Amino acid sequence: MSGHQVVVIGAGPSGVAAAVSLRDRGLHPLLIDRADEVGASWRGRYDRLKLNTPRDCSHLPERPYPEGTPILPSRADVVEHLDRHAHEDGIELWLGTDVHRIDKQSGGWRLQTSRGDVDARQVVVATGYEHTPVIPDWPGKDGFTGELLHSAHYRNPTSYLGKRVLVVGGGSSGFEIVTDVATGGAAKAWLSLRTPPNILPLWGTGGFTSDFITRLAGPAPPRLSDLLSRLARWINFGDLTEFGLPVPAEGPLARAARIGKAPAVVDPGVIDAIRDRSVEVVAEIEAFDANTVSLRGGVQIEPDVVISATGYRRGLEPLVGHLGVLDEHAVPRAAGEIAAAEGLWFIGFFCRPTLIGFVAEQSKLFAQRIADELQHIMSTSP
Q: Which domain covers residue 107, as residue numbers?
């Protein structure tokens, strides 16, 4: 049995942000991750992945990227950034350690881990909104004779040279991966969409990034915010209806507020590939039948590979599902600078633009609250 002031679960961007903010306030957090390396989710993503927000607003608290880092940091840049600061003095790091369950006890919390029980006065859960890959239960998919994988396991187009590839999903990853395979030698590349997605330009006219657009639109009333976002889309992409990408009825910020799903942020090369028909946008999947995929509307195609860029579950039920802190969608009822229960905090569970910078600011707020609470406990203890 070991005891700690505060334990942070998850050594990705949100968890490392929480750990360094707590360290900056004189605490000595224990940072735990089930993986053998810091930033495991970033290490495992596809090779061309990079941030779609600039380095100046996408770094850990008070810790900018080193001089010479690209404006849009690469996957390797982000991993190195997380790893360096997770190993700062004052942070105790346990890698390769599973946390199975959190239980309330007198004076704090008990964590059941693969190293044994750990007691803590305060716990920060930062396991991320992209925790458990989800592939829809399409009829007949188990009998598909081709290759079926989640986008979490896609690396680069090398394995798909000369193959017919169907990518499913209208988020940033779906657009990037289908463009990657289309320009990387695939014989055919389809992008299957259930509904028309909201898209924003990675780089806008005048060199503005999507982050600038969302920060400009964010404080405005919802209808004006969506109008500004759609104007940015029109200026940069024009009318994409003939290519299967009409403007959705619901605006990007309204949709993000309703279901917690951020718009897809795409660079000009993605739209170029759609315009020149290197990528063909098709309807949603209805069923699999051996080597055939049936799409809505009666169209059938025969892909060699299906890559499902269909998102993730947060996977919090085994950990805290018994504590009454999750809503009907298994999402934390409170997060960020608001505690879900006394001494229990969640961070990084809501998809939004500039997420790394956003959770960095949140971490500073709740780290101060945690420090104040612990100081109060120490000052009033007999």
A: 2-131+314-380
